[in-house]
């Protein structure tokens, strides 16, 4: 009865958490905060779950290993810390203005004024920018705390908090005039310490679980049935690079040498200084959905539109994905000419012009217009005082700018146009070199190093992963079928097939390693801050895990292909290679990288478990022994997956506490990560839940449970929203 009561409460908690995320989408965050997350009934449910779980643990204590005891004790300590925070902790906001009287109180989450035992005054507020750009790097408030006769100065920035007498101050926002700062205030003298102690105990417990020689995980690893099965398939290095079809006719553009020179010029784009090659690739992908056109490089495509507009406006290269948009515009086929769109606008306006697909098409045509008028090309730096600005040839310039410099900015591209018309490419190369020297001299220290520029040029010209993703999926499916035949004894297969498949994994791993390292080096931060980057990292994790375990685990090679192929394909659902941009200030914490690495490693392992479950279900009826063997593999993978997810959740909680003043905010993605963790953790309790001892049920559970991962990563982003919806 105690066991049924405990797991019944857990099921009820999962239902409440799931319902809360749906209600938040319908009724809004304040509604669920007041009626669910902040309600006494919700706290009581957690309390009952903790107490009943502890009682059940005591009932089974003679059969429980010390590491398991420590793990559950850590969870109880974490819940105790959360309970203490709920009882005694306070959250609020503090608005300070320059040259105003010091604040004696702050406003709590209920809108009531709460007094300080001291006063707080704002001395200064500054926005720091990335060098040579207008992208914010940090927001910095300097405050003075006066406590009787004592005065203390503190600096508050993103990921840098101020502490005094149990109060913690966090940078939240600022006034538009720059003369005021808004701080988050947290007063939780006991709860955070208890919770952090629980986090530390949890990490120790998970490490003990994985290293305990008499524990379940190590016993599963020693299972003799895991040895001796290898798998087959093949992939070639050339498949990673998109093949270019030969074309008999191409529109006019610059020769490769001069187009590459144009691409090596720098431009202010996406709030950073980068090679114009980056804009050229984004421009080409935006218009056509591909990184090249008729065998021309992105730099040649951009140069063609810039210098040969009359010819290029007749090219059917502008992709209109929406069928409804094509119908409304009267355009036949998926690709349209610029002249087609201009005619469609004249004939079909205003009917249907608010359609989303039409709006997207209009953005593409406006992008062409911005390029051809020159306003898109902010390639000319100039300084006003200590501030570096970038301008295009049509932008207004300061009146006090030296005449020679303003003439150079306004006339250089006109001269370039004349040289292109005359086909004087030797002189054109000299002008490009002169513009490059001007950029470097004027930008000074803000100009990117040669190493970063070359790295970005290499990154732009590397083949990207759409072709590789499709081939990985095809090879993975074929290898999966071949592996199943080997498992049930129909065929052993030649050794060279396995070697070719392993070589493909090595090539794919090296390719993704190179692109991730290049992207991180260019961006100056770990490439883990967007959906594209995290899914590319997941593909890299899948191939890395495959290389580690290919000799030991059944089906690991086809699973590696399938997981990495799906991850690469999903990463390109939006844009095939979204732009590299400066990090938002709150994302500059090193804990971001640790948090994302742990969570994406967990999701990768859970994807392996899901595919393992599909194989187990396929074999369970006619080949029960092999299905049981795959159950052992699934249980082994679940341990590091569940532990990595737990560690990722709690590292994220520490990061949130440092950045926002609270370690848990009941954001939809936080809630669904918790739901995912609790659901998969149930599979680690076969002694208490006998159903998980049955291979068919275990495999079916692993397949269905992966829906939680999909909802956590994609459902929250596209359906539920929240502050995590960017990743």
From TrEMBL:
Residues of the Cytochrome c assembly protein domain: 532-724
Entry's transmembrane regions: 36-57, 69-89, 190-208, 229-246, 466-488, 500-522, 528-548, 555-574, 594-615, 636-658, 670-685, 697-720
Gene Ontology biological process terms from the UniProt entry: cytochrome complex assembly
Record keyword Lipid biosynthesis present: no
One Gene Ontology molecular-function label: heme binding
Subcellular location: Membrane
Keyword Transmembrane belongs to the record: yes
Domain ResB-like residues, every copy: 70-180
Classification via InterPro entries: Cyt_c_assembly, Cyt_c_biogenesis_CcsA/CcmC, ResB-like_domain
Membrane topology: Multi-pass membrane protein
Main localization, broad class: membrane
UniProt keyword list: Cytochrome c-type biogenesis, Membrane, Transmembrane, Transmembrane helix
GO annotation, cellular component aspect: plasma membrane
Pfam families in UniProt: Cytochrom_C_asm (PF01578), ResB (PF05140)
Cross-referenced PANTHER family: CYTOCHROME B_B6 PROTEIN-RELATED, HEME EXPORTER PROTEIN C
Name of the protein this chain belongs to: Cytochrome C biogenesis protein
Organism: Barnesiella viscericola DSM 18177
